[in-house]
Amino acid sequence: MKKGFSLLFTLIFVMIMAVVGVMILEFSTSSVKHTARSFMDTKAELALRAATEYAIMALQGHDYTHGRINKINLHFPEFDAEVRFHYFTPKCANTDKYCTYEDTNDTNMTSLIYVTVESKNKSFKVRKVRVTLQNP
């Protein structure tokens, strides 16, 4: 009777330890995924800032006598960024979708900048969007 009870107790103990081991492994896996997603989210935020600053520098260095900048595509190692511009100016045609007619001194060539950053990695899909208003 003692040998049978010891065997049963050992089997139950081994099964409990196996369940605890599986739970620890699942928790560890989810923790690693969360850390990776957090890292990708931070990298996407930095790419978003870089694309926004690049767009502002492009606006400041652009010669508007040759036309306006409407769109910029940027490629980072892990992200693609698209920058679109919308202008507020008195020199705007009604059919132009990239500008709005505004006839004030404060809004001459003020631009609304839409920045979208998306990850190239399909397993960690990250998409960030920023909108900012810039004066020339």
Structure description:
This protein has one helix spanning 2-60, and strands at residues 71-75, 79-89, 99-101, 110-119, 127-134. The chain is of the alpha+beta class and 136 residues long. A hairpin with a 3-residue loop joins strand 1 and strand 2. The longest helix has 59 residues, at 2-60. The model has no long low-confidence stretch (mean pLDDT 84).
Question: Short description, anyone?
Answer:
This protein has 136 residues and is an alpha+beta fold. It has one helix spanning 2-60, and strands spanning 71-75, 79-89, 99-101, 110-119, 127-134.
Q: Helicity level, as a percent range?
A: 40-55%
Number of strands: 5
Order of helices and strands: HEEEEE
Distance between the termini: 91 Å
Give the DSSP E fraction (strand runs of 2 or more residues).
25-35%
Instruction: Characterize the biggest β-sheet.
Output: 5 strands, mixed
Task: Provide the structure class.
Answer: alpha+beta
Rough outline: rod-shaped
Please indicate the count of domains: 1
Mean pLDDT: 84
Low-confidence stretches: none
Radius of gyration: 28 Å
Number of helices: 1
From the structure above, extract its key features.
alpha+beta; 27% strand; 1 helix; 136 residues
SSE blueprint:
Elements: H1 2-60, E1 71-75, E2 79-89, E3 99-101, E4 110-119, E5 127-134
Parallel strand pairs: 2-3
Antiparallel strand pairs: 1-2, 2-4, 4-5
